Amino acid sequence: MNWISNYVRPKINSLFSRREVPENLWKKCPECGTMLFHRELSDNLNVCSNCDHHMQFTPRERFTALFDGGIFTEVKVPEPVADPLHFRDQKRYPDRLKAAQKATGEHEAMLVAEGEIGRTPVVAAAQDFSFIGGSMSMYVGNAFIAGAERAVQMKRPYIVFSAAGGARMQEGILALMQMPRTTVAIQMLKEAGLPYIVVLTHPTTGGVTASYAMLGDIHIAEPNALIGFAGTRVIEQTIREQLPEGFQRAEYLLDHGMLDRVTHRKKLKEELVSLCRMLMGMEPPVAGDLPAPPAEPALAAPEAPAEEAAPTPKGEPKT
Ligand SMILES: [Zn+2]
């Protein structure tokens, strides 16, 4: 019995547990269906290597890729009043918040950070679509304003990555009030003569599109991002007309003058660095790092005399 319980059973258990493969190692591209290995996908900035589809990118992942060496400092955001309307749908609002915090590991739907990109100091804010649809809440408003105030204080450009389904319904009118609040914050940046750049990511809709996402000095979008105020179906039903192909997509909006650029995620950092430096009147960016000094001759030179010199001190005390 001892032999079975002490040796055989653990052996069998270890055989079975070894076969359990973590489910999140592979991710399916929602556009072309290719299975992508998670590490390969994160190395590729969450862009499908087969069809170039730009997948969801959390603020933390984005900042790690954006800031030099992945180093950034979070900007502190003042905490708003919790659940002022005591809103309840299928769940109580505080429970919904807690579930989102647990699922994303983030405190709220916007992350604000400061640091350097391409040796250019900036303040950046990014919205998290995985956190209750990136919805604009009082916290998001506070975060946006905290970022703008920090940018003015440090005299830095302000870059915002938008992603939202609109205003957070659980906060009602208080969420909608973030539209004028953020507009005032942008005015503050303009009065300070600082650039405000918006990067619209998939999807940016509702109140966010109707406020801070469309008030930038420059509007850049990621390829194929959905950007609009109301949904296509709502517009079609209202105007009773068929809308054109690709309506509300980044490329369509670029053609119709709503955007300045549509930029691939891999080229985004480079473009933001150039824009920030240009608008701040700084020197042009250094293209890439300086090449390393030639290794071989430099290494060979100090080694050779060291080997020759080594025996002499040892020899000297003997004589
Ligand atoms: Zn794909």
TrEMBL record:
EC primary class: transferase
Zinc finger motifs (C4-type), residue ranges: 29-51
Extent of Low complexity compositional bias: 297-311
Domain CoA carboxyltransferase N-terminal: 25-294
GO BP terms, alphabetized: fatty acid biosynthetic process; malonyl-CoA biosynthetic process
Key words, A-Z: ATP-binding, Cytoplasm, Fatty acid biosynthesis, Fatty acid metabolism, Lipid biosynthesis, Lipid metabolism, Metal-binding, Nucleotide-binding, Transferase, Zinc, Zinc-finger
Ranges for region Disordered: 285-319
Alphabetized GO MF terms: acetyl-CoA carboxylase activity; ATP binding; carboxyl- or carbamoyltransferase activity; zinc ion binding
Record PROSITE patterns: COA_CT_NTER
Subcellular location: Cytoplasm
Pathway: Lipid metabolism; malonyl-CoA biosynthesis; malonyl-CoA from acetyl-CoA: step 1/1
Function: Component of the acetyl coenzyme A carboxylase (ACC) complex. Biotin carboxylase (BC) catalyzes the carboxylation of biotin on its carrier protein (BCCP) and then the CO(2) group is transferred by the transcarboxylase to acetyl-CoA to form malonyl-CoA.
Family note: Belongs to the AccD/PCCB family.
PANTHER family xrefs: ACETYL-COENZYME A CARBOXYLASE CARBOXYL TRANSFERASE SUBUNIT BETA, CHLOROPLASTIC
Protein name per its UniProtKB record: Acetyl-coenzyme A carboxylase carboxyl transferase subunit beta
Organism, as annotated: Vannielia litorea
